[in-house]
Amino acid sequence: MLALSPDDWLTVEPLLDAALALPPDERQRFLDNLVPAQQRWRPTLERLLQAEAAAADAGFLSRAASLTGGTEGPVADAPQWQAAQKVGPWVLVEELGRGGMASVWRAQPHSGDFQREVALKLPHSPAPGWLERLKRERDLLARLQHAGIARLYDAGVDANGLPWLAMECVQGRDVLAWCDARQASVRERVGLLLQVADALQYAHSRLVLHRDIKPANVMVQDDGQVRLLDFGIARSLASADGEAALTQLGQRPMTPEYASPEQVRGEEPGIASDVYAFGVLAYRLLAGASPYAAAAPASRHALECAVLEAEPPLLSTAATDAATRKALRGDLDAIVAKALAKEPACRYATMDALAADMRRHLAGEAVGARPPSWRYRAARLIARNRWAVGVSTLAVLALVGTTGWALYAAREARQEARRSGAMYEFLTGLFNPLREAQPDTRHRDLPARELIEDGARRVLGSLHDEPLAREQLLIDLSTLTQQLGLPDLSRQLAEERVRQARALHGTQSRAYADALLGQRDLWESAGLYEDGFKAATEALAIYQALGERDPQRLALAHLTLGGFGARLHAPGAADIDHLVTAARLLAPLPGPNLLGVVYEQLLVAHLGRGDMEAAYQAGMQGVAANRAQRGAEDWKTAASEDQVGQLALFTLRPKEADRLIRHGLQVLRKTMGPDVVILARGEANLALLAMAAGHVDEARAHVDEARRIATLPANRAMLAFGLTVEATALDVAQQSGDWAALREGCARWGSDVQAPQPALRLRVQQACAAEAIHVGDLGRARALLDQGRAVASQFFAQVPARHAVLWLREGEWLAAKGQVEDAVAHWKQVLSLDDTSIVTARAQAWADLRARQALDEPSRALARRLRVQLLDADAESGFATPLGLLRED
């Protein structure tokens, strides 16, 4: 094996990662297809892959890693890390902790001006999956910039092929030792727990679960600042890929004493598992003992049985001294017990909710974990104002308790009457804003759109003294303004609805969850999928905690999670399950609902998985559902027709595609006007149809109209539509050879292409790579192709068709470099893909082979088969462009 310098590893590491990402039986082919410039590294790669296979046979990953406090012994033949040893750019100083799979060392840079000490995490061996595992930890930590979370500084691979992570080296003690050394009070300990809760809430807001919360991973500095450590077994809420990999290797990554019941059962953990582990940490920190102290010393099996079945003693009863028992009794008993509930739905839905109860306890206010009796709330009121409360106040409170139900019923009746009156006043005020005896009726023909817009602006600034009436108006008007193409106003209304629900009902209320999900359409149109996924996760947890049974509420939560999840990551079974659950909830309900939208999202999920026929069928189910519920001339039916029309083209149904899209656009223009933003998507779809048919001028006209609509001031906030139009413009320019237009379009995206949808990013990256190759800028082309490969590997690893256009461009790049043989191999690979969604790419690969006089009989057979497919679909006119490329002369 060649001796490697750190610079060499910058070249070798991406190749090793790519090989490790492949099934073992495909790695030899990967090595065979290395370009000549990369073949010099083949012996090194073969040696590393052999080491990986040997480590797999030895069972290095039979247990989960734990960096500190683990009981496993070191792995056989593990590297013997030593002080003063160099690892990449670092020199080791002293070992800080050791586990079965990794050790953590204090380290310093061995050169340069940057001399900050770091905590260097080093695996014991190049075991299976370690590169991916540390990359996952690196990617998760890179999202987290919070004062309560140890920061990530750097990551890399040493000269022996072992990955490392350089993290903030926290100076301090674990939280138990820190509190014991200072004999911290209960109040001080609660303050530290609040810091941990805030750090966890931040991580959850970035869709990161910790999954290993325990004292050893909570360090406290001398100044009392908490640092949360070790995200080694953390996972992303937005992707289950890492969890799946661990599961396949037989791991259950957890620390048993702090594991939730669902983790012990082997179920996939969620936010509720972090809440549970935090509850165990709080129990240990406040009571000085484990909630399962009786079972922990016996055996792991006894401990797991206790976690699953035994109810922990009340927190206050586990404390050893009377003063502590008194401080813990009541509120803290209830808070910790709720966090430790066996059923996830019975715990706090978020760390924010738990922390809010702790803060209420510190402030002497009533906590949500305790039953909301009037006596309890009165006691908290008296405790906060003990010097101001006299005997007369106590008498009044007793009277209120006795007659509370009557007063409650009367108050509800008065509130309903006031709400109805406020609604009446508001609505009549739209027509008679000056409250004149004889209203001015000169504007009685004011269009409904302007009337609703005026009403929406009024409600944002009024009715603060009638919150229930205002709440209903915010709900109705945010929906109306969205449908009428007023996205900025709709967003203001939806955000105000969330603020008011939080203030009026609290963050664990049904109204707050409803308000969160009320923003779904806005997130969809703006491409804010991560925001929507996070809020839907919170909303579903609230519904589950409340025992919600309303099918429409639950369906909306599942719809948002499944639909947005399928856009955030490679669509998986969990995304499909959410959407199927939503469809099952909605299908039996009478009247219009979101069933059509659910099927549209299933279309997207199947599309992301590369199953074009399943995507088309889901889309047609959506059209049928909308037609049955709303009629053929409804705008929602029209929108679903437009969307499935593109899938009809991808499944070789060009005539049906043309009919669906044009009818959809006709209905949309009739019902919504000529400028509604959804028309931009339809025009972009027509541009793709026209290009497939060889009608370049028509395609350009559709792109121009789509751009006009997407760039209107009222539509610019709808980012997803605008980006789709720009990607289509690049496709049309590239396929038609309009290099000037392509160069101008690519300049808007820059060298680092970003877009909320991975498929959209791929479209832009491949088109701009083609432009860079055309002008001879091979360095820029290489960078764009590498970006595209990263996206395709992350999101579409199991969908070869998504890689096809990148392989096509890769061949062009290799040909430009003079590596014609390698280019030919890429083009043959594209031609061999039996996928109807990429017929133009496959035809172009044939044309490139013909131009290089590299045709052989297998390629000719593949081209003939594709030509027959297109003609059998009655598609000669609909697919004139690929048929033209498939000629043999």
From TrEMBL:
GO molecular function, one term: protein serine/threonine kinase activity
One Pfam family hit: Pkinase
Keywords, ordered alphabetically: ATP-binding, Kinase, Nucleotide-binding, Serine/threonine-protein kinase, Transferase
Residues covered by the Protein kinase domain: 90-362
SUPFAM superfamilies linked: Protein kinase-like (PK-like), TPR-like
Binding site for ATP: 121
InterPro entries named in the record: Kinase-like_dom_sf (IPR011009), Prot_kinase_dom (IPR000719), Protein_kinase_ATP_BS (IPR017441), Ser/Thr_kinase_AS (IPR008271), TPR-like_helical_dom_sf (IPR011990)
Residue spans crossing the bilayer: none
Protein name: Serine/threonine protein kinase
